[in-house]
Design brief:
Number of strands: 0
Structural class: mainly alpha
Helix content: over 70%
Shape: elongated
Radius of gyration: 26 Å
Order of helices and strands: HHHHH
Length: about 150
């Protein structure tokens, strides 16, 4: 009797091991599929929102600096950090694979992102007067794009 019980326990252990292997294989398959799936509107909206936020931040820095509320050294450091973050956000958007139906929206966001990267660089070198209008336009377009991706 003892031998039969041990054999039954071994059989249950093998079944449990087989079930665990199948579960792990399923999890791996789902994770692999998710990693390769194109981004949906929500993921694109997040990337666009980062750029919009950075445009708003640059506008705020410009307003504060123009009002004499920010020290030039602080502005330079803040812009240096913003340029780094902005460049990373732009590259992440550029690398983002999106669903085919979102390709045009991504392309338009990339164009705005390129302009924003340029504006941040220009700000570092000295701010031309017409850049404020361009920054506002870029910020407004990114805001509209982000809102449109919520629908």
């Amino acid at each position: 009797m003892e031998k039969a019980e041990r054999e039954q326990e071994r059989r249950r252990a093998r079944h449990q091991l087989a079930a665990l292997v199948l579960i792990l294989a399923g999890i791996t398959a789902v994770a692999t599929w998710a990693a390769h799936a194109p981004a949906d509107a929500a993921e694109l909206r997040i990337a666009v929102g980062e750029l919009r936020s950075q445009a708003a931040e640059l506008e705020a820095i410009d307003e504060e600096r123009s009002a004499g509320k920010l020290d030039d050294a602080l502005v330079r450091e803040h812009i240096r950090q913003l340029a780094k973050v902005n460049g990373n956000s732009f590259r992440e958007l550029a690398r983002l694979r999106v669903e085919q139906s979102l390709a045009d929206q991504k392309s338009q966001a990339l164009a705005d992102g390129r302009q924003l990267v340029s504006l941040v660089s220009t700000f570092e070198a000295g701010w031309p007067a017409e850049a404020r209008e361009l920054l506002k336009a870029v910020h407004d377009r990114l805001d509209e794009r982000e809102s449109a991706l919520r629908s």
